[in-house]
Design a protein that fits this description.
Strand content: under 5%
Number of helices: 13
Order of helices and strands: HHHHHHHHHHHHH
Number of strands: 0
Shape: globular
Largest sheet: none
Structural class: mainly alpha
Radius of gyration: 23 Å
Helix content: over 70%
Length: 334
């Protein structure tokens, strides 16, 4: 029930012979509706963030921190938490930018996965304000990390604002998503960049080593986006935007998705056989990968981005455990 209807109900009750009794009940109902409205709006804000996708930012932070621990033999929990909050804030803000611009360009519709603005759950200005708030939180957290980390300001700013710019420009400004470059942005941002950021904050310097170890996780993260774009191929084409899935078509989209799913396992097999058996831990998730491959092949895209994100989370966690459990000096360049 909206505020106008509540006011009307209260005024009608006040005019009735038992106005005082029914008016009091109506006011109590209004208070309950207001409380429920706030809960509904908070839930809408959480929904707009697409929390199921946060594995794409949390696992790179965990990986970068695990690499720092293996290289330095120590880990600062405060820096780990600060890095996670910083990356999550930028990721959430980027999701809101995506929601806003997809709605503004008429891409989102009643059958879209994200109907936050389509169903008028939130107003566009609400999404904009929340996005600005999250970017501000990210900047404050980055400043805090600089205050307690030994990483040089120019290095932290380069990585952080590189990630922030990418999260915005994915759909805002240039709109890389709409010109078939979104996959490249996601592959770089929610893979190497986030891993390097978390690693550098811990150790206090930039290194190329995290870039190499980020490859399996980056491929898995890209699989989330590619499954989403393949599912939305027809609606995106009708809206006049171009994605990689549209350019290569359904058959090659399936091939690419399969490569993105299984290439990380090939890398883990090499690491496990050549260096340490602990790197075989991510192989425990292979049954999930085969299940996703069958679902994609059957062109049943219902919840497939969410299921791919779940695989990404579990794969990333086992990867982090594998690095943490590896004997000192067993892995190259660590």
């Amino acid at each position: 029930m909206g505020p106008a209807e509540l006011v009307q109900k209260i005024s009608i009750s006040a005019e009735s012979p038992r106005g005082s009794e029914s008016g009091g009940a109506a006011l109590a109902g209004a208070d309950g509706a207001t409380g429920g409205g706030w809960r509904h709006k908070c839930a809408a804000y959480v929904l707009a963030l697409r929390p199921w996708s946060f594995s794409a930012s949390l696992t790179p932070v965990a990986l970068g921190s695990a690499l720092a621990y293996r290289a330095e033999g120590a880990l600062d929990p405060g820096l780990l938490l600060g890095s996670a909050v910083t990356v999550l804030a930028v990721h959430g803000a980027g999701n809101l930018v995506n929601t806003y611009y997809d709605f503004s360009k008429g891409i989102d519709h009643k059958k879209s996965d994200d109907r936050t603005l389509v169903d008028q759950i939130l107003e566009p200005q609400d999404v904009v304000r929340f996005g600005v708030f999250l970017y501000t939180v990210g900047c404050i957290c980055a400043a805090g990390l600089y205050a307690v980390s030994t990483l040089k300001l120019e290095h932290l700013a380069l990585i952080y604002f590189g990630g922030l710019s990418s999260s915005f420009l994915y759909t805002g400004g240039i709109g890389f998503k709409y010109v078939a470059l979104g996959d490249v942005v996601i592959l770089i941002t929610f893979g190497p960049l986030a891993v390097v950021f978390a690693h550098a904050v811990q150790v206090g310097y930039l290194s190329l080593t995290p870039l190499l170890y980020a490859v399996p996780l980056a491929l898995s993260t890209e699989a989330i986006l590619h499954s989403n774009n393949t599912r939305d191929m027809e609606s995106d084409r009708q809206a006049g935007i171009v994605t990689l899935a549209i350019l290569i078509g359904p058959t090659f989209s399936y091939i690419l998705y399969t490569v993105l799913l299984f290439l990380p396992y090939l890398i883990f097999c090499v690491l496990a056989t050549r260096y340490t058996i602990s790197m075989a831990l991510p192989l425990l998730t292979i049954p999930m990968a085969f299940s996703l491959e069958r679902q994609f092949r059957s062109q049943n895209f219902n919840k497939i981005p969410q299921r791919t994100a779940k695989l990404n989370l579990l794969l990333g966690l086992f990867y982090v455990f594998g690095i943490t459990l590896a004997p000192a000096g067993a892995l190259p360049k660590l």
